[in-house]
């Protein structure tokens, strides 16, 4: 693999990983009532709520368990893989 392409894909991977950690952090903060009212909780809510809200519209919680974040994280990984394929194809087209 070309080093430039590798660095581009590595950067994209880091961005997706950071967002995944943000989603996981937001989920874990929901277990602690006062954590979401902190400045970090509000920042995570602004970044993560629009993405998770889309899934919460279509996937209702079962009892006390909300499965929408799990589906959201799985889809985020599929999106990452799709972005990799698109970037590789664009890079190969111009190289």
UniProtKB/TrEMBL annotation:
Transmembrane segments: 12-32, 58-76
InterPro entries membership: CCB3/YggT
GO cellular component: membrane
Keyword annotations: Membrane, Transmembrane, Transmembrane helix
Family of this protein: Belongs to the YggT family.
Protein's UniProt name: YggT family protein
Originating species: Ureibacillus acetophenoni
Lineage per the UniProt record: Bacteria, Bacillati, Bacillota, Bacilli, Bacillales
């Amino acid at each position: 693999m070309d080093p430039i392409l590798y660095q581009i894909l590595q950067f994209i991977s880091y961005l997706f990983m950071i967002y995944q950690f943000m989603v996981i952090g937001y989920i874990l903060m929901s277990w602690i009532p006062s954590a979401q009212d902190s400045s970090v909780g509000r920042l995570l809510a602004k970044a993560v709520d629009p993405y998770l809200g889309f899934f919460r519209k279509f996937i209702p919680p079962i009892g006390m368990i909300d499965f929408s974040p799990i589906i959201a994280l799985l889809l985020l990984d599929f999106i990452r893989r799709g972005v990799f394929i698109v970037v590789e194809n664009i890079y190969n087209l111009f190289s």
